[in-house]
């Protein structure tokens, strides 16, 4: 079992590798090694590329699963209608802590992603390509790949200008409107408007934005053709998929699998034991499946959806039998609340209320607390400035459906008797690229956590008003603290809450973590 995911997990291919071709021989494929592994890239017109994307049923691999052909058509029509040159944006931010597939592609096979992006740009007549990343290794690799193509420093080649944008490593950075806003020089936060990027995206131009794996898949399809691409996989999910498999396995891995493969087979090959009590599909915005459902699920958009699962970011986490599933979900719910942009009511107030109500259920507060969970989830869905509240609500509600025996034990008997092992790979507050105290190279991370001196606390509640993402007022009128470190983006609020506590009962504790 490996609670923390390395930035570059081991890779494995079930069958002949496509996306991972060549990575068994090199840590990173430079331009020459990339062409040796994949061959030259044929060019396509917009109509040809659209027909190819339709023929191979290419859908986004970053979460929503939107058909790529429809994006192409929408951007092409908008550009023609407005007489404007469109843009292409690669979303490689991958803010979900359970996924590393895009990190592997960008750090080790960046030219395959760039092939798909530049192919799309040429077909649409786009003037710019932007690659959004959050990790240092991905940024360095993509910059090096652009230099190998003569596109370093924003130089223009073949009428296209390309650049890399680095965003903070947060869940919200992977939200499409946050990436577009950051690429235009603004804050890496959703702007609160629901404009389609295909109509008005980067710099106000029609923009085709998709995930890094999606562009890599497009580059493969262009080389293989529709028939060759569909030579593996299932009728509704041709080709291969990248999964990040973690949890109750010997080590986390990024695995390339044929579309439609049984989920149970993937877990077995990755070394999962025979009895996980459930499987998380699609990451922290995904859904839990109970063991019996996971045993019959197949890895595809439709196959997982039919079982109540989500392909999402391609994350698969097997939950071992010796941890409390409700406790694991509470940890993640608190983290999701703290990761919000805090710009709208559903995020700022609704997600902390959802996490708090679920924590009450886990603590044995009974049927009333369970009803508050359902009410809080219903209150945030469809009302956020982005999809974060919807994803968090789906994640929490899926746990109630998947772990009914454990839920009954907490509601009726006050608990299940198992500890919460912390299997979900939630990041520390400092982040993986954070330096050691005092600067210099990365070292042991210093995680700050809120703590209360209960001999001083008088229940004023000011801390909950200042920091609702991490503090709420419990049924007894006293503060209840989230079981999560204080993220960088909330540190200022946390310090302000500590300073303004009338009883001087609140403090920030530091603990070293390796």
TrEMBL record:
Domain of life: Bacteria
Entry-linked Pfam families: Complex1_51K (PF01512), Fer4_15 (PF13459), NADH_4Fe-4S (PF10589)
Domain NADH-ubiquinone oxidoreductase 51kDa subunit iron-sulphur binding stretches: 326-370
Matches recorded under InterPro entries: ComplexI_51kDa_subunit, Nuo51_FMN-bd, Nuo51_FMN-bd_sf, Nuop51_4Fe4S-bd, Nuop51_4Fe4S-bd_sf
Annotated GO MF terms: 4 iron, 4 sulfur cluster binding; metal ion binding; NADH dehydrogenase activity
UniProt entry tagged with the keyword 4Fe-4S: yes
Protein name: Oxidoreductase
